[in-house]
Amino acid sequence: MATLNYSTNIPVARTVGEVQGLLAEHGADAIAVSYRDKVPVGITFTLAGPGGGRAFSLPVNVDGVHQVLAEQHRTGKIKSHVSKAAVTSPEQAARVAWRVLKDWVEAQLAIIEASMATLEQVMLPYLRVDGEITLYEAYAAHGRRALTAGQDPAEREAGR
């Protein structure tokens, strides 16, 4: 199956605005877009909660999408009538990556609206901890130790 939205023509700026609108409608207090080489590559937002606002960062891996699109075109997963240039350019990868993120955010918000989870539960892996990294990144780098911060050192050593 081809990557979702592989043929989109919707400009990145429009999709970024749609994601910002969705987050704002669901309680985000502040929203910022991260850029690399003038291309948006992520979005950070804050949610008010007990004890103050919490920041969350959603990455958009344009380079990863670019590689996947090129591979899918090469292996025929993307319809052959679509030109390689049309689906494998860096600009197309950015359009696809942001549309996929927007669709994911919409799906998560539908789960929240159905009272199946809270926004905080859904976004927990993307909670910014220890400066610039997310909880997931801390876990990936430090494993279980990342989840025991604040625990008594003796308990942490005992594996409790």
Architecture blueprint of SSEs:
Blueprint: H1 12-25, E1 28-36, E2 39-49, E3 52-59, H2 62-75, H3 84-88, H4 90-113, H5 119-123, E4 128-129, E5 133-134, H6 135-142, H7 153-158
Antiparallel strand pairs: 1-2, 2-3, 4-5
The fraction of residues in strands falls at: 15-25%
Give the overall form.
globular
Helix content: 40-55%
**Major sheet, described briefly?**
3 strands, antiparallel
Report the mean per-residue pLDDT as an integer. 87
Number of domains: 1
Which radius of gyration do the C-alpha atoms yield?
18 Å
Strand order in space, largest sheet? 1-2-3
**Strands, total number:** 5
Low-confidence stretches: none
At a glance:
The protein has 160 residues and is an alpha+beta fold. Helix content is 48%, strand content 20%.
Write a structural description.
With 160 residues, the chain is an alpha+beta fold. The protein has one domain (12-126). 48% of the residues lie in helices and 20% in strands. It contains seven helices and five strands. The strands form two sheets. Strands 1-2-3 form a three-stranded antiparallel β-sheet, with helices on one face. It has a two-stranded antiparallel ribbon with strand order 4-5. Strand 2 and strand 3 form a beta hairpin. The longest helix has 24 residues, at 90-113.
List keywords for this structure.
alpha+beta, 3-stranded antiparallel beta sheet, two-stranded antiparallel sheet, 160 residues, single chain, 20% strand, 7 helices
